[in-house]
Amino acid sequence: MHHAFGHGSVMLLSWLMAAGVAAQSYPVKTVRMIVPQAAGGGSDTVARLLAAELTKAWGQQVIVDNRVGAGGIIGSELVARAAADGYTLLVNEVGGMLIRLSAHAKLPFDALKDLTAVGMVAYGANAVVTHPSIPVRSMKELFALAKARPGQLNFAVPGMGSVAHLAGVELEQLAGVHWTYIPYKGGAPAIVDVVAGQADFGVNGMFSVFPHWKSGRLRILAVASRERHPSAPDLPTLAETIGGNPSGSWQGVLAPAGVPRDTLARWNSEIARINATPAMRDKLAAFGAVAESMTPEQMQQFMATERTRWARLVREARIKLD
């Protein structure tokens, strides 16, 4: 009896070791995470936090490669066309990418077919921010000012058709007001101009606005998250002040369609493990973001739902993108 048990244990052990070796065989070389935006933004920050942890865990270099251009399309297309071997991945703002995709009639790839969800990493809610000189301290006061001065308030957007632009259009529809959009090349320059008082207000991700709010150079009127923000619990949510949908920046990892399922599973469990560490949560909190984990299936479903929501808004508002 004892002998038979021992033999079974040896067989089980050898099976586990063989399975372990199969799982450990990835990665055997450098892994590239393509970020389709410039260094310093939300996707770049998330990618660098992940790269450092994965390099430690896997004993292989995981590097971040910034491929800027065409509103994130160049870097995203690079991954959509890459070999589906798990060595080229995309770290991107999932909502923003899908909006551009729903609004562009002729894209060189299909985000929901040519890319596959690997895992969500972080969520940075959008915030409505004003320069401290603007005489408003709530969303109701902002709407009252916009009604009193139709078309005169300047809204800084990180590009036409961005999440922030469409969130602004949603607010206009909600309140029956009208303001003027000033497009910038990205979230950072848009916020810089609000901080400098060159633009009146804007909607931008907590990733970008949080440091300026902490230093008192921006006023946050409301945060567009489902619940109050853990890093700023005194700030009201959009929903509790005027209604409106949650919006923001969901940072996720995507791979070319056809990447092996065990590679997806390995990535997903690593992201979940890293997200559960106090160090990762603290680092994300410093950017006003929270760890957000989803299975590949949940993330794929989320992407489909978001695409439908924003495509409808683009259509209704007749937003045309070049």
> H/E element string?
HEHEHEHHEHEHEHEHEHEHHEH
Quote the average pLDDT: 88
Q: Which outline best applies? A: globular
CATH classification class of the largest domain = Alpha Beta
What percent of the residues sit in helical stretches (DSSP H or I)?
40-55%
| Strand segment tally | 10
Radius of gyration: 22 Å
Low-pLDDT parts are: none
User: What CATH architecture of the largest domain do you see?
Assistant: 3-Layer(aba) Sandwich
End-to-end span in angstroms?
A: 75 Å
CATH superfamily of the largest domain: Bordetella uptake gene, domain 1
Number of helices: 13
SS-based structural class? alpha/beta
For this structure, the CATH topology of the largest domain is: D-Maltodextrin-Binding Protein, domain 2
The major β-sheet equals:
10 strands, mixed
- Report the β-strand fraction as a percent range: 15-25%
**Into how many domains do the coordinates divide?**
2
